[in-house]
Design a protein that fits this description.
- The chain has about 400 residues and is of the alpha/beta class.
- The protein has two domains: about 160 residues, Aspartate Aminotransferase, domain 1 (Alpha-Beta Complex), CATH 3.90.1150; about 230 residues, Type I PLP-dependent aspartate aminotransferase-like (Major domain) (Aspartate Aminotransferase, domain 2, 3-Layer(aba) Sandwich), CATH 3.40.640.10.
- Helix content is about 35%, strand content about 15%.
- The protein is built from 14 helices and twelve strands.
- The strands form three sheets. Strands 2-8-7-6-5-3-4 form a seven-stranded mixed beta sheet, sandwiched between helices.
- Strand 6, helix 9 and strand 7 form a beta-alpha-beta unit.
- The radius of gyration is 23 Å and the shape is globular.
- The termini are far apart.
- The N terminus is likely disordered.
- Bound molecules: pyridoxal-5'-phosphate.
- The site of pyridoxal-5'-phosphate has 11 residues, from helix 5.
Length: about 400
Amino acid sequence: MTSRRKFLKAASAAYPLSFLAPLSSNSQEIYSAPTIFKRDYFKEIGVTPFINAAGNYSAFGGARMRPEVAEAIRYGTYNKAKVDDLHDAVGKRIAELAEADAAMVTSGATSAMVLATAACMTMGAKDKIEQLPDTAGLKDQVIIQKNHRYTYDRALIAAGAKLVEVADEDELRDAIGPKTAMMFWLLANHNPAGDNITMDRFLTVAKEHDIPTFLDGATMTPPASNVVDACKLGFDLVGFSGGKGIRGPYSAGLLLGKKDMVAYSRANSSPNSRSIGRGMKVAPEEYIGMMVAFETALQINEPEDFKRKRAVFGRISDQLTDVPSLKSTVIIDEGMVNEMYLDLEWDQSRVNISIDDFIEELKNGTPSIRIRILKFSGGRVHISSTVLAEGQEIIVGKRINEILMSRA
Ligand SMILES: *Cc1c(COP(=O)(O)O)cnc(C)c1O
């Protein structure tokens, strides 16, 4: 089976029913207990920390790096090397892991988009690289499907390019011209608008006209193997977030693809002082951290990880058995990204609190606990365990019990 088929098919693949088996609390925790820190910096400066039961959102501090990643970062802060040499070697290792021609570490998926666009506009020409964001005389149009317009597409114009929207293949063919620099594709788990042009047709048309293509797969992890699969789809460049599902450094990202295109992207970035991307610096320790995060994420056994998360949810549910009418159900967000949530539901005539008030009370309590209502959850209470540290689930369960029982 080709990875491409598997990856595309995954969007509709349901998880086996065995995953919906009853909660068990005896699964092994794979995370070490939080270190006892010498200083409490947040306290010193008056920042209120919260327990993140929402998930790895940027505004909530992103993912929790795995211990292997924190260790790699510590190593990187101590051992110094020439940044370009380090980046060459890290890029080579990441490319091997992703089965891609080449790879680089970017400052987030957003920078991957800026640098990819800059690369497509300049194609390695030093004078053009130094000219951006002025695009006079350059190919500077990025073609995007109307349905793929989204919050982050600003990154596509940050280097000076202009967006050209197309709704179908006829418009796509009409839009292609001497100014076309790149064709952009957004890969999303839940794209309600859908694609008017299929990925196959999009890539075929791009190849016919020899136009470089870029895919934003920022959120399409876990599993990390989606990065490997995305590299086989046929795009010249693909970008991913490092600080979301891969659990790398918050500010890191990955840009992978054809050797020359990755090299052109790097030419537009730090440490090249005359580049548009000079401010998108990645710390040397983050190169190492991102590499180790990807390596570690690829080794995660998904069913095992789900088992562990199910056990975490089990320990929350165990605290809630006396709440009248409360139903707690583990649900799986099906799609290319497989994530698991604990869904809570109660009869508001028996436990008299609205969902909004519940979220507010969790936030304002001690300790503060944050959850978020996700669009796909249709306004339901969904708890995520991906950023919880070991033991925090007990505190979460106890607080939820307190709040709901006070209104029962
Ligand atoms: C989060 C996100 C980005 C930006 O990623 P960063 O790594 O935070 O820069 C880009 N595209 C999509 C689809 C995202 O969800």
